[in-house]
Amino acid sequence: MISEKITLGYLHSLYGPLLTERQERVLDWYVNQDFSLAEIGEQLGISRQGAHDLLRRSRETLVRWEAKLGFGHRLAAIRQALGEELTRTIRLPEKERELLEGSLFV
User: Fold this and answer.
1) Does residue 106 carry a pLDDT above 60?
2) pTM of the predicted protein model
């Protein structure tokens, strides 16, 4: 569940402006403000199931954009390559290298 929210947040940060205003707001509430489906439904005046459906459609839209454009995968590859180059160039101690590699999660 947490990794799903992280991935969803990452895709939202990349493709959020391509969503409708309502979809973007719902994703912001769900991912960044940790609203429950019931809270989202209450804010929009819809049922929990309606909030779930809206969130599902928004997620599917983000996934389609990523499949078409691939910015997330490209950015992850660039981050990984930069991290590897930094660790080779700087020759960080093992503890700091692990910390740096852990921060490159997409």
Assistant:
1) no
2) 0.69
